[in-house]
Amino acid sequence: MPEGHESLPLNSVRAFAVIAREKSVTRAAVVLGIAQSAVSRHLAVLEDYLGSKLVERRGRNSELTAFGRLFATAVSEPLDTIYFTAQRMKRRQTDLNRILVRTSLPTFASTLLIPNIQAFSTEAGGAVVDVVTTLSQPTSADNFDVLITRDLALAEPSDRWVLLNEDLVCVGSPRQVAGKEIDIVTRVPIVSITSRPDTLPTWLRGMDIRQEDIKLGARYDHHYLALPAIAHGRSLLVTPEVLVRDLIKQGLLEIVKGTRTPSGMQYHAHAVDRSQNLDLARMFCRWLVRLCKEDQPKSKLLGAASK
User: Fold this and answer.
1) Residues in domain HTH lysR-type (predicted)?
2) Given Cys at both, which of 26, 137, 237, 262 links 230, Cβ 3.0 to 4.6 Å?
3) What is the separation, in whole angstroms, between the first and last Cα of the chain?
4) Residue-level pLDDT at 137
């Protein structure tokens, strides 16, 4: 920096870029992992440096001023480039046989991925697989090697594998549905999942059943919360078949005959190019394809990798 020039507060620039992206000081604090008051101080420092107001508060949201929008446009792309380059060049000497898997599918992770992950670790010579779940849109600044998702887009370069085409089924405890015909779905309450509000309407359309012809039961946030209740209760659940595959094998759940229908959704795995353990990340994705293939009908489209 030339003598006599005041140093640009780079941490404050970074904080402002996150405020601009999140449209909220509160959410920016969560993303940055610092207190909201610290984000506000960064904003004040930058506004003082620039001599202009960058943000106006609108209730819980933060709205950029005209100058703020101009500055955000100017700095956001260079910052993303810096973070992306740093991620690619960063050396994790202690994590040479470790990957971080990020997924937007918590029930898929808890019912299929995590119970089987030791098999991959053994196959990969003791590799450690860290798993995190989040519904937020991934960015190039996020630290992960593999993304498993059904509905999130990935804007950065990656190898992609199709894991499965989602089928929906209606399940219940064996004592509830064994030997019963499909009309049981109009006589027994069906629980609903608030995190997948599309599941039940999609299944009803596929089965040509009207909403008014069924009885709605309890509501749960996620499938993994509902599964124990269904296995030990008197209600039914419409769910992606892959989530209950192991429970069916164990005899804890049973599919109501004739209730399988496609949802039109696909599950994907991405190994991001910036991963420091790209070979291990690709190996994990190929293993996941094999895991999802087990006991699936041969007619399903599975596992082609593409750029």
Assistant:
1) 8-65
2) 237
3) 42
4) 87
